[in-house]
Design a protein that fits this description.
heterodimer, A: mainly alpha, three-stranded antiparallel beta sheet, globular, B: alpha+beta, six-stranded mixed beta sheet, 24 helices, 36% helix
């Protein structure tokens, strides 16, 4: 069934490739605008980030070409091996990783540093595609569902051990893939419920939480009194849910906050909720100062909102962003690169960029749905889900809709491993799509 | 898995799109609807740098600088930028302060501004401090020298007229008048500094500078298209003669009173001394507040500009005006004589006259020269009771109009603020005072300058200008030109010639000759300068002060008014030395020395003795420290009492009385 009539390059989805290149170029201009100074003698200064990014783009395109010239079946057969390689790297990182800003997630080889957690997304996407598409896998059974979930989340656990929670959360995006492949909606519903429960637990005192949950249970019992009276299962279910909720809010959340989470993470979560960190969750940071109100992430978000908000409807114009140009927003060429767009191009520019992302993701879904082989389809959904998570959380955190968890904006943020891994994700998809009529296992 | 195939991809797409819409709604809110972020951005990222223009310089008539700007250095500090390895000892040695002081100041700044913002650590370093500091400057991270200019008075004269500048107060900022000022701005608080504030201050420059998160400037905002450069203040050129001013201040040292000298041909003020004076350099820079309080609490009132605010009965110095009015009304001729034998008895009581010899008031010139009280009381009565008025109430009003046109009873309009208006009663005021029943005997003293007439020294000098000019004057003023231009709107009122009366030239001549006789052979012979025709009038003014709630007669004020030379007069002068005695004893010599200094530029050797006497005389009565006179404010009196109590001078009210009596007995005035 191989389509031998057309050459490889004619079979490539040019729309996807075009949007990819456009986003990368926008990213480079944004990085350039952030660091540009009127005193610069040339725009080709090697010490500037945009030139480094250009080199990374060159590397990415080169790797992309290599991928395009690779046999598409290779990716399926390589999937588990790659996954194993990725896990090995992650475990290795826990021990020999480099400390960067409190996280321990970077591996250094010579002068070259990268985040295995970033690269492992590719392997996980491939491995999950391989697993879900394999004929032995029956995703209607809980056994295979659990294996799938484990496959997706195991790297996340290793990444959490590297104190890079933000990156770990990205792996939760694979639930979207599994949902597409038949994971019951109830699992997602339970996940959402737990998030809501966590937030209310943080906002209310434990006693209030107890009363609220009990009253809610009582209300449900009253409304469905007939069922409760007659049906033992219903009775047990209600009591069970109530007990789990109590357990979760009274013990699991406090213990997680006290023992598992880092001080800055707690700060960020509370900062997003617009609350002060309560004394019981305050932690001493490394230099012995306890975290306090007005913390760093608060400052970041405030500055970032000022930068974006000051852009107005039309923006201040390219290279005219006073906030981004003058370094008010920390990490602005990496995690907060969206500020540069928001400030210089205003709402119109933001709308255009978000439009591009949505087009990209919907295009990937279209590509996924047209695949003959399940492997390619599932992989496409994986790419879309990863992109979606990064896109939604990154932009949301710059405008105060999500906690600052330090993940990059795909293709725009400065950073080699981020650009390279997103490029690889896209190019593998392009390669698989070029062989969409081929059955890949 | 076919059951999911149709709906789930759709749900995934919905999730993508819904999230994007949520984000866009939020973006629309913060970018388009909410203004807060734009304002914040400008606030944070664009720094309005204000460049203060140099304030205008003030020159005297000869181009001598009276007031200029001196560069000084302030030491500012950003507490957080001080590194651990900061060498406090070297730093303290350079400034000659103790470590404790260092810590205290730093703590204050920390509390006031927070640790991140700059605060002034030390104001106005001395040149020595600056030098020592600069030697080791590279070690002192966090500290910075900031240039600032302060007003400097090289001759230390003329504080009262030049005025001082001060920081604009929050109360002032609320007023529309000061809408263009910002907190921290300095502006003229009094004197010429206040009156010519707009001219002197120049225009502030505003530069918009982009800065980064560390407040480091990164370049001009929008390439400087919104910037406005600073424009320096205009200079003022005065009529004042700095040398004469200084000389006058020396003559008036240790005396209470004032000297006002005016060039009659222009109305330009040549000198204005209010004594005791103060060194205007005290009211600049860092010591201003402390010195200000000190001066404010001084019982001799150095901050009170007597020359324009204090009012005195003119006494005999009024007589030339009385004569002019009587002559012009036609009630007497220059040859009119009065048989004075040492007093005026026509009103049923004796009004004493210092002269008894027959013929000392045989005509107007003689009466003026000898300052006969009886003669001028009579002249006054003849004027207001003249048949043609029919009634004294009409006559007095006419008399009032004459005197008013001489500039009495209302402010002259000089170009410094807070001028007093003096007192001059009209018919209505007497009607109010005496319930309508009064006659020319009631206020007969007006003819000799006592009673309900009180003038400021400036009004007195201005009246002399009118006499010297034979009937016209220019509003007295200091400023000749603003930024070298004389014809500016602000100075227009001072270029206008005021023709005050239609008194004939010959009438003026009569009085002028009489005044010449005052110096040649009358009461003011002490003022004679060989080769100069000086016209003058002495005045010895009875006065009362409220002591401990009782009006008490104090020692006479010594007064002297003069102008010279008689033909084409160049200077008209009024001198008042409070509570010192005869007009000819103190005020006369001072006026004459001032005239000599101004017209001849030097004091003749045979007059050096008089000059030395004037320099050395200490004429401030010890009462001064005890009087709560009317011109003193209530709070000042309270402060004085407190001060007196503190010094053990005044234990209670009774002691005050005893003290007063002892001082009387011991002959202190």
């Amino acid at each position: 069934m191989q389509n031998t009539n057309n050459s490889l390059f004619q079979r490539i989805d040019t729309k996807l490739l075009f949007v990819y290149l456009l986003l990368v170029l926008i990213g480079m201009s944004a990085v350039f605008s952030v660091e540009y100074r009127t005193t610069d003698v040339s725009i080709f200064l090697m010490k500037k980030s945009h030139m480094k990014q250009a080199i990374w783009l060159g590397v990415s395109l080169f790797v992309g070409m290599l991928i395009l010239f690779t046999e598409s079946k290779f990716f399926a057969s390589f999937a588990y091996l790659g996954y194993a390689l990725g896990l090995t790297l992650l475990v290795l990182t826990i021990f020999i990783g480099k400390d960067v800003k409190g996280s321990h997630s970077w591996l250094e080889i010579g002068s070259f540093a990268f985040q295995p957690g970033e690269v492992c997304k590719i392997f996980t996407a491939l491995a999950l595609a391989k697993f879900l598409s394999s004929p032995e896998t029956n995703f209607n059974t809980w056994k295979y569902r659990m294996i799938g979930i484990g496959l997706a989340l195991f790297p996340a656990i290793l990444i959490i051990l590297q104190k890079e929670t933000g990156l770990a959360l990205v792996y939760f995006s694979f639930f979207l893939v599994m949902y597409r492949e038949g994971l019951p909606i109830s699992i997602l519903a339970i996940g959402l419920s737990l998030i809501v429960l966590t937030i209310t637990t943080l906002l209310l005192s434990s006693l209030a939480m107890f009363i609220v949950l009990t009253l809610l249970a009582a209300l449900v019992a009253y409304l469905s009194w007939r069922d409760i009276k007659r049906n033992v299962t219903a009775r047990g279910l209600l009591i069970g849910i109530w007990a789990v909720c109590i357990l979760f809010s009274q013990f699991i959340v406090p213990i997680t906050f006290k023992k598992v989470l880092q001080g800055y993470q707690i700060d960020r979560i509370y900062s997003m909720l617009g609350q002060e960190v309560p004394d019981k969750y305050r932690k001493d940071t490394e230099d012995g100062h306890s975290s306090k109100k007005g913390n760093a992430s608060d400052y970041n978000v405030t500055q970032s909102k000022i930068a974006i908000g000051s852009g107005g409807f039309w923006g201040k114009g390219f290279l005219n962003g006073t906030q981004t140009k003058n370094d008010f927003v920390p990490e602005q060429h990496t995690d907060f690169i969206f500020c540069a767009i928001g400030e210089q191009f205003g709402f119109v520019g933001s709308l255009g960029l978000i439009g591009l992302y949505i087009y990209l993701m919907l295009r990937i879904i279209v590509i996924g749905e047209r695949q003959r082989s399940a492997f390619s389809r599932i992989y496409a959904y994986g790419v879309a889900a990863i992109l979606f998570f990064h896109f939604a959380i990154n932009i949301s955190m710059t405008i105060g809709l999500a906690p600052v968890i330090g993940i990059t904006l795909p293709f725009l943020s400065y950073g080699g491993s981020s650009l390279l891994s997103f490029s690889v994700l896209i190019f593998i998809l392009l390669r698989l799509d070029a062989d969409r009529q081929v059955l890949i296992r | 898995m076919s059951y999911v195939a149709s709906s789930r991809p759709f749900v995934v797409r919905i999730i993508f799109i819904a999230t994007a819409i949520l984000i866009l709604l939020r973006l629309f809110y913060i970018q388009v609807i909410e203004d807060k972020y734009k304002l914040l951005a400008n606030d944070i990222a664009i720094y309005r740098k204000i460049v203060f223009p140099p304030r205008g310089v003030i020159y005297d008539r000869k181009g001598h600088v009276m007031l200029y700007n001196q560069l000084v250095y302030d030491l500012v500090v950003t507490p957080n930028d001080i590194k651990k390895e900061f060498d406090t000892t070297t730093f303290c040695n350079a400034l000659r302060i103790s470590k404790d002081q260092f810590c205290t100041i730093l703590k204050k700044i920390r509390i006031k501004n927070g640790p991140m913002r700059q605060g002034i650590f030390f104001e106005q370093l001395t040149p020595a401090q600056t030098a020592r500091y600069q030697e080791n400057m590279y070690q002192f991270n966090g500290f910075e020298l900031v240039e600032r200019s302060i007003r400097t008075y090289p001759d230390s004269v003329g504080g009262a007229l030049l005025g001082y500048i001060g920081e604009v107060s929050p109360a002032m900022l609320k007023k529309d008048r000061y809408s263009s000022y910002h907190q921290g701005d300095y502006l003229g608080m009094t004197g010429l500094e206040q009156f010519y504030e707009e001219e002197l201050r120049g225009q502030r420059g505003v530069y918009f500078i982009e800065r980064d998160k560390f407040n480091r400037p990164t370049g001009p905002y929008k390439n400087g298209e919104l910037d406005t450069p600073a424009v320096g203040g205009k200079s003022l050129q005065l009529y004042l003669d700095a040398a004469l001013q200084k000389y006058g201040e020396q003559l008036m040292a240790n005396k209470l009173g004032s000297v006002v000298a005016i060039d009659p041909s222009t109305g330009g003020i040549l000198a204005m001394i209010s004594s005791p004076t103060y060194d205007p350099n005290l009211l600049r820079g860092s010591n201003r507040a402390r010195n200000f309080a000190k001066l404010q609490s001084d019982a001799t009132l150095p901050m009170f500009n007597r020359a324009i605010k204090a009012t005195y009965n003119p006494g005999s110095t009024m007589k030339p005006l009385t004569a002019l009015v009587a002559l012009d009304m036609g009630v007497v001729t220059p040859s009119f004589g009065y048989p004075c034998s040492g007093g005026y008895y026509a009103c049923g009581r004796k009004i004493g006259c210092t002269h008894e010899g027959a013929g000392h008031a045989a005509n107007l010139r003689l009466a003026l020269a000898n300052s006969c009280n009886a003669y001028f009381c009579h002249l006054y009565r003849l004027s207001v009771d003249a048949r043609k008025w029919g009634d004294v109430k009409v006559g007095l009003h006419k008399w009032y109009e004459y005197m008013s046109s001489f500039g009495l009873g209302h402010a002259t309009g000089i170009d410094i603020p807070y001028e007093g208006s003096g007192t001059l009663f009209d018919t209505k005021d007497y009607n109010d005072m005496y319930n309508g029943s009064w006659n020319s005997c009631t206020n007969v003293f007006l003819g000799m300058g006592q009673g309900e007439v009180a003038l400021t020294p400036l009004q007195l000098a201005n009246a002399m200008c009118i006499v010297a000019n034979h009937g016209f004057y220019y509003t007295p003023h200091f400023v000749k030109a603003i930024g070298n231009i004389q014809r500016v709107d602000k100075l227009k009122p001072y270029l206008e010639k005021h023709q005050v009366t239609h008194i004939s030239d010959s009438t003026f001549s009569t009085v002028v000759y009489g005044m010449m006789d005052v110096v040649d052979k009358g009461t003011g012979m002490i003022a004679r300068i060989p080769g100069l025709e000086i016209c003058a009038k002495t005045g010895t003014v009875e006065n009362k002060a409220v002591v401990n709630g009782v009006a008490m007669k104090m020692k006479n004020h010594s007064m002297f008014v003069a102008f010279a030379p008689r033909v084409n007069p160049k200077i008209a002068i009024a001198v008042i030395v409070e509570n010192s005695g005869f007009g000819a004893t103190w005020a006369g010599p001072i006026a004459s020395l001032m005239i000599e200094q101004y017209l001849k530029d030097t004091i003749a050797s045979n007059r050096k003795g008089i000059e030395a006497n004037m320099f050395n005389a200490k004429l401030i009565s010890s009462y001064t420290y005890l009087i709560d006179s009317a011109r003193r404010k209530k709070d000042r009196a309270i402060w004085d009492k407190k001060q007196a109590l503190k010094n053990g001078l005044l234990k209670e009210r009774s002691t005050f009385k005893t003290l007063l009596e002892t001082s009387k007995k011991t002959g202190l005035h």
